[in-house]
Amino acid sequence: MKELVIGANDAGKRLDAFLQKAFPNLPQSLLYKYIRKKRIKVNGKRAEISQRLASGDTLALYVADEFLTRPQAQFAYDFLRAGRSLSVLYEDENLLLLDKKQGLLCHPDDREYIDTLIGRVQRYLYEKGEYDPEAENAFAPALVNRIDRNTGGIVIAAKNALALRILNQKMKDRELHKYYLCLVHGTPKPQSATVTGYLFKDEKHNQVKILQTPRPGSKSIATKYRVLDSRNGLSLLEIDLLTGRTHQIRAQLAALGHPLLGDGKYGSNAQNKPYGYKKQCLYAYKLVFDFQTDAGALSYLNQKSFEVPAVWFRDAFRDGTL
């Protein structure tokens, strides 16, 4: 028999979801069977599959040890091999706002598992004493949003489960506004507009197409742009991302005839070559918290705005070195 106590980061979770995360070696079919057979109890009583756990609840599991092996101890320290470099814009007891640099992945993929932004965040919090994998049953610090490897900018990391739940909901409800800066070829007309369409993703080639009419599998998109300055065949734009789809800004601006400087996928290497830039000029430079509904423990963030102080291509464009 194994017994454990639910902590604050696991409060509010469904019993089955918690067990699947805490004990991934326990097959789902057996998990449900053991709950029905009262081999998994909450506070000494029969539990329901959909029961919500509360902080301080005691779980008793009358389950074979082979199913209760927890891999966290093995994986928790993988993040100690991640890099230490983090650019922190803001930090409090609930969250971090990070300036992710271009070239760094947010999450592991099939090419890079260790040195990612989430790995660096977990190492940073572990070394500060704010994250102890052994003390957690199913929670680890997590990213609320992500941006592509080759895009830089603000990424939110939640330090605890309550902050993660609130921020995920606020992101879903569009109460967090993300603004981007980019350099494009040419000058869009008019100087500001909201452009709409449909985005279809080609999974095989990791590329998207912009359509004017919907087709099966496509998603509606909307992007608001404003031209800030133009010179030397280039324009500096501020983008208000009204929908957040894969490669949306890059593909939609290219479809308008104004691809990003340095973007070889949706633009042209021949067009980029005279400027000598191989990195795409796109940065998530500003974040505004605009809560329209109760944000609970994060209400203090309402109407706060955070901005990356230095964006490499904007500064080069403005001082004339680009």
Please sum up the structure shown.
With 322 residues, this protein is an alpha+beta fold.
Helix content, binned percent:
10-25%
Query: Whole-number radius of gyration?
Result: 23 Å
Mean of residue pLDDT values: 92
Secondary structure category: alpha+beta
Q: Characterize the main sheet.
A: 11 strands, mixed
Order of helices and strands: EHHEEEHEEHEEHEEEEEHHEEH
Estimated share of beta-strand residues: 25-35%
Can you count the beta strands? 15
Query: What's the number of helices?
Result: 8
- What's the end-to-end separation, in Å? 66 Å
Outline type: elongated
Taking pLDDT < 50 over at least 5 consecutive residues as the criterion, the unreliable ranges are 72-76
Describe what this molecule looks like in 3D.
The chain has helices at 15-22, 28-36, 72-75, 117-128, 161-172, 248-255, 269-272, 312-318, and strands spanning 2-5, 40-42, 45-46, 58-61, 88-91, 95-100, 142-143, 152-158, 176-185, 192-202, 207-211, 219-231, 234-241, 282-289, 305-307. It has 322 residues and is α+β, with helices and mostly antiparallel strands. The strands form two sheets. Strands 5, 6, 7, 8, 9, 10, 11, 12, 13, 14 and 15 form an eleven-stranded mixed sheet that branches. A four-stranded antiparallel sheet has the order 1-4-2-3.
